[in-house]
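Q: I have 252 residues here and want to know how they pack in 3D. Can you give me a structure?
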Amino acid sequence: MTMTDMNIRLAIIDPVLEAQVMHVLAESGIQCAGRHFALAEIPISDRSSVVVVTTPSTLHASHMRDEFHRIVSLGDKAPSGAISLSESEIHELPELISKMLTQGNGTNDSIVDPYNRNPSVKGVLPRVGARTLNRILEENLGAILLPIMKRQDHPYKNILLSEIDDQSILRLCDELLVGDSNEPWSAVVINKVPRNSMAQKRLRALERELQGSGVAYFHPIYFDAEIQITGAPSKSTIRALQPLFDWIAKSN
C-alpha cells in the first residue's frame, strides 16, 4: 500500500475542535477525504486504507478499531488501538500523519510508532500480537517517553515478540541470529503464554538459553481472553506488564 492509496477522515463531534483540525491539516496541504460522526459511517471496504482522526469518546463507543490503518485520538487518554495527541499538540498532527502515510501498512505484524513515542515491536511471525503490544505501550508509556524520545541522543530500544510454540521459537532464534549483525534486540517478550506447568518449564528453559546472547530483558505475557474478545487488555495484564514498562522507561 502506498501513500496515495490512503486517506484522512475525521470523526470529531465537537465542531470547534473539528474546525481546528481541518485548519491545521489544510495549512500543511493535507486534504481530508471525509467527516463523520461515528467510525461506523466509514465504509467497510475503505477502512484498511484510512487514517482516522477522532476523540477518546468516539473510540470508547466503537469496537472496530483494528479495521483502520491507524487512529489518532485527540485527548488526554486514548483507548487501546490509537495514538494519543493532546489538544495542545494538534499542531504536530500533520507531521505525524505524513509519517504514517509514507510508511504505509507494511507486510507483517511489526510496527514502529511513526511518532517515536515507544520502542519498536517486531513480531517473529504474523499475528503473534506485535500490533496489540505496541498499542499498549503507546497508551501506557507515550506521555512518559515523549520528552526522552525527542532527544537526539536517546538509545532506541527494540522488542522482539514471539509466542511459545515450536514454530515461533524457531523463528525467534532466526531473528536473534540476524540481529547479531543488523539489529541488536534489547528485549524478548513471549506472548499468549498458557498458565500451565509445561509452559512454565519452557519459559525457564528459554530464558536460560537467552542469557548471554545480548538480550537485555525477557518478559512473558500470559494469555488474556479479553484481548481476543474486545481488543483491549485486562487490568491484570496491564499490572503484569508493569515490570516491562519500568524497564523501558529506565533503559531510555
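Q: Anything worth noting?
A: The CA atoms of residues 19 and 173 lie 50 Å apart. Confidence is low (pLDDT under 50) at residues 104-118, 150-154.
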